[in-house]
Amino acid sequence: MKVLSKVYTALIFFFLYAPIGVLILFSFNDSKSRVTWHGFTLKWYEELFNNDQLMDALIVTLSVAALTAVFATIIGTVSAVGIHSLGKRMKRVFLTVNNIPMVNPEIVTAVSLLLIFVFVSEATGWFEMGFLTLLLSHITFSIPYVILQVSPKLRQMNAHMYEAALDLGCSPVRAFFKVVLPEIMPGILTGALMAFTLSLDDFVISLFTSGSSAQPLSVVIYSMTRHRVSPEVNALSTILFVTVFVLLLVVNIAQMRDDAKKKAAR
Amino acid sequence: MSVDTIIDLKNIVVSFDGETVLDDLSLSIRNGEFVTLLGPSGCGKTTTLRIIGGFVTPDSGDVFFAGKRVNDLPPHKRQVNTIFQRYALFPHLNVFENVAFGMRLQKKKNAEIKERVAELLKLVNLKGFENRRVHTLSGGQQQRVAIARALANGPQVLLLDEPLAALDLKLRKDMQLELKKMQKSLGITFIYVTHDQEEALSMSDTVVVMNEGVIQQIGTPQDIYNEPKNAFVADFIGESNILDGIMRADFVVEFFGRKFACLDRGFAPDEPVDVVIRPEDIDIVEPMKGHLTGKVTEVTFKGVHFETIVDFKGFKWMIQTTDYYPVDSVIGIVLNPEDIHIMKKSEYSGLYGDYSSYSEEFDELADPTIDLTDEGGGESVD
């Protein structure tokens, strides 16, 4: 029985990670073949960095992700604080409303964002589909996740802590920055990280809202694969995978250290 | 308003979600006094404290601090500091920075802050704890940090919201003494909220007994205990046997069909009254010699005394006695005039003071003052 469960677990991990393993492996394959191994090379990485289209897309993706993380985190945190200060009933209403976009099919979000962007840009002529609309759509779908991360931290906080800060002479704004913010910081950071990775990861919504002037990686790779999958894409995917993996590792280790410290303290 | 009144609440009305929490409450607090607001949860005592602290704005009525109306003054501009339930220390700061928090805001010089923090930590017996993180401290130590932090700004009035509720009994008793000593040596006003009547009686100069948003009685601990104003106070402070009686004349009260001498007067002839007899005041004698005779139905050993429930004609009394009388034995009791306290009839008449349904377990379950949740006092209406 024990052996069986181990085999089962191994199989699951195999199927989960084998495709990524193959992708990483073939990013070092000295041939365009996707079947046979022709020896180790780094030339796809070299070509990748010389491929302007992919590099431009990478810059778009990273800058959108970074900006999304910043704006979605600020807006989400402010919203979470606002929701927290509402009465019990309104709080529940808002948190439910906040959950809907997360379970909403992405394609619905994508189409509805596309529609409103087209409508506003045609009605006002303020902007065209491009970097701005891409960024706005990413911020939009990231905000609920930030709220979801920050709200529990606010709930766990000792409600009197804010009052204690006021009591000792802080103005309300100062009390927020000096006492509340440090207390909910872990939630804010997790929220920012989530916004960053969600933006990095997104394809469906980006496809609809990016326009032709600023296309993120996912969209560019998609259009490339319609002709042929270049091993450069393997190389790029490997880089992205490793980046996200390291990021996750760092966050988890930090979390573990924090927990261990708290446990030791008790 | 007298000169040494520091806080004056006038006709305060507060309601949350349409529920009245404080109903036309007026209260004056003298400078340097140790005042305790005492009552079961939901009686409005915490709300009263929060009004003084500036965290609740009354719907109507005025709050005066040292003669000035402070209704609209936000908490951070008031010269009062609060010790909150569950301490509310800042976990991201160490002990030193927690205590220094208020002084840092006032932009005091570093050297001055250092000196003052050391002084305060010495006052609360936490010398050498400066660099400890607050979550590495025990409950009692956290409590001390909270006290030091609240005193750091040199408040004229310290508000304490059930500060000892989370500590165990032994520690609580020690802290009671320490707080009382501290208050005396600092010479500032303490306003203390608790649902623990023993705590209130042992620490306070003045006790304010509250129920359902209304002050029931204000007085010294002795006054409150010996001359309760109504059945609620009599029952809430200590144990009481409360009986129906009729005032036949000045100094004469009739209950159980018998006239007793008492020390009270000024009632209308034949006015119905509540009679309070404290369980420890009752003398037990042989059945033949007693004013009344009854049968023991229950005995509980309490260490110092036996808690004996005695049936007098269907009405059960509690008697605290150092002698053991077994269940079913018949005893007589003698009531001296000073043991009999007369109260005017009130809305609370008939609600308390009968031990017929008394049992330890029931008492605990039905006692609204035993707080099982972490929120206490007037906040339950929130």
Keywords:
heterodimer; A: 266 residues; mainly alpha; MetI-like fold; B: 382 residues; alpha+beta; Rossmann fold; 2 domains; five-stranded antiparallel beta sheet
Could you explain how this protein is built, in words?
- The complex is a heterodimer of chains A (266) and B (382).
- Chain A has helices spanning 2-26, 43-50, 52-84, 88-103, 106-124, 131-156, 159-167, 172-201, 204-209, 217-225, 231-265.
- Chain A is an all-alpha fold and 266 residues long.
- Helices cover 81% and strands 0% of the residues of chain A.
- Chain A is globular.
- Chain A has two domains: 1-41; 53-238, Orthogonal Bundle (MetI-like fold), CATH 1.10.3720.10.
- The two termini of chain A are 39 Å apart.
- With 382 residues, chain B is an alpha+beta fold.
- Chain B folds into two domains: 5-226, P-loop containing nucleotide triphosphate hydrolases (Rossmann fold), CATH 3.40.50; 239-381, no CATH class.
- In chain B, 24% of the residues lie in helices and 32% in strands.
- Chain B is built from nine helices and 20 strands.
- Chain B has a six-stranded mixed sheet, sandwiched between helices.
- In chain B, helix 2 packs across helix 3 (110-123), helix 2 (95-105) packs parallel to helix 4 (139-151) and helix 3 crosses helix 4 (139-151).
- Chain B is elongated and about 80 Å long.
- The A-B interface holds A 158, 160-161, 163-172, 174-175, 179, 182-183, 262, 265-266 and B 53-55, 74-76, 80-82, 84-86, 88-92, 101-102, 105-106, 133, 135-136, 149-150, 152-153.
